[in-house]
Every structure is written in C-alpha cells, then in structure tokens.
Design a protein that fits this description.
Layout (H helix, E strand, L loop, with lengths): L2 H19 L16 E7 L5 E7 L4 E9 L2 E10 L1 E9 L5 E7 L11 E8 L2 E7 L7 E7 L5 E7 L8 E6 L6 E4 L11 E5 L5 E7 L4 E7 L10 E7 L7
Antiparallel strand pairs: 1-2, 2-3, 3-4, 5-6, 6-7, 7-8, 9-10, 10-11, 11-12, 13-14, 14-15, 15-16
The structure holds calcium ion (CA) (2 copies).
C-alpha cells in the first residue's frame, strides 16, 4: 500500500468515526409544508418562531402570512388582489409582522397605477397602509421596522413604466406615511434594493444604479428634514464580472 493510499484510508476511517460520533439529531433538517404560494420572505420573532410572507401572483391573487406555533402552521390571508413580488417581512419584538408588497391596483397592467402597501398585524387582524405617490411605486420593495413600529420602505418606481424617479423611500417615522425621492435618477426594475435602519434612526439603502453599472448606497440621517443635505449618496465600482 502506497503512502498516499494509506493516508486516504486513514482519512476515510477518521471521517466514518466522526460521522458515527455525531448525535443523531445534530445534522437533520426538518421539512414542513406551509401552503400554496411563491416568493417567500422570512423573519424570526424574538422567541425564534418563523413568520413567512408569500403570495400568489394572479389576477385574483393574495398575500399570506404563516407562522409556526404549538398547534402547527397557521396561515392568514392578509390581502387579496393583483399583486407582484417579491414581498418582504419584518417582525417587531412584540410579535407584530410588517409585510410589504406591490399592488398593481388594476386587473390589467397600467403603468400609471401601482403602489406599495404595508400590512401590519398578527393572527387574524391585519391593517393595510397604502403608500400614495405618482407612478408605479415600490417595485421590489424591502422593509425595515424598528421595535417601536416605525417602518422604513425602499423600492423602485421603474424607468420602464415611465418614471424618472427611480429609488423611492417611504416611512411613518414622522406621522402620516410620507414618500421621499432619494435622488437616484431613473432605475429599471430588475435589480432589487435593500434597506436597513440603525438603532439611532439612520436609514441605509443599497441599490443597483444601472446607468453606471455601480452599486449605490444612499444614507438618510435621522430627523424630519428631507432636504438634500439630509441625503447622501455614494457608490462603489463593481468588479468587471458584474452585469453591465
Ligand atoms: Ca413614485
Ligand atoms: Ca402610485
């Protein structure tokens, strides 16, 4: 037996011994069915329970919330209509879910309509907040929620549907929901956005600036004033292997 083969046998024996030493439950996945739908978004609450938002992208479609409790999965229909995903979800420390999705606002596609919606609740009780703004707003919307229930939403008002606004931000941080244009310039809908809020209230949004093939980062300082001084924008050149 060559040195190489002996080494291989020894390694195989070690791997087999290690596998036998693993506790039976240590590497097992538990797979469960939730229900009919697509484009799931997941958040775990303070107790570790999963909260899944998902939808059906049909003319007579719906957005659903499912959570796993002692009695198994419980699914609620939180909205019905002609919607588009992805959806997003965040859960506050008190167990309330905040789900966002895009509502086409018509049974046929109309570029001048369309809004982002935030649905807030738990169990069977859900309240919808519609984000009113000109254009086909909050495509690819992403949501970040502070534990006091302040929500922050970022999405695209797509160039393909006639808007030159691109990245739009919405929040309830100052009372009635407001929409701010971040200043990205026109953006297509393909590339997604991501938003987070810091404990002190600063908001960051990352997005793909198609005109420059750059990733952009927009940051909003805490505070009510929505002036140009409150908005900063930086970008980082992507590696050359990134999509043009
Ligand atoms: Ca808009
Ligand atoms: Ca709109």
């Amino acid at each position: 037996m060559s040195q190489q083969i002996r080494s291989g046998v020894a390694v195989a024996a070690l791997i087999a011994a290690a596998a036998l030493a693993l506790p039976a439950s240590g590497a097992e996945w538990t797979l469960e069915k939730i229900g009919r739908g697509i484009k799931p978004a997941l958040a775990l609450d303070a107790g570790g329970a999963p909260h899944v938002a998902f939808l059906t992208e049909l003319m007579e479609g719906a957005v659903f919330h499912a959570t796993l409790g002692a009695g198994g999965w419980r699914t609620a229909t939180v909205a019905t209509g002609y919607f588009y995903g992805p959806v997003d979800i965040d859960v506050t420390a008190d167990g309330r879910s905040y789900i966002t999705y895009h509502d086409h606002e018509a049974k046929s596609f109309r570029p001048e309509l369309g809004a982002g919606v935030v649905v807030i609740g738990q169990g069977e009780t859900w309240d919808a907040v519609r984000i009113e703004d000109p254009g086909h707003d909050q495509w690819d919307a992403d949501i970040a929620v502070a534990d006091d229930g302040t929500w922050h939403l970022a999405g695209i008002d797509p160039q393909q549907f006639g808007s030159r606004d691109g990245l739009e931000y919405a929040t309830n941080a100052f009372g009635a929901p407001r929409v701010e244009q971040v200043g990205s310039g026109p953006l297509p809908y393909e590339f997604g956005v991501s938003i987070e809020v810091a404990p002190g209230g600063a908001v960051g949004i990352s997005y793909f600036d198609a005109a420059e093939a750059d990733l952009g980062y927009a940051e909003r300082a805490p505070g009510e004033a929505a002036t140009a001084r409150g908005l900063t924008r930086t970008s980082a050149r992507l590696p050359t292997s990134a999509p043009a």
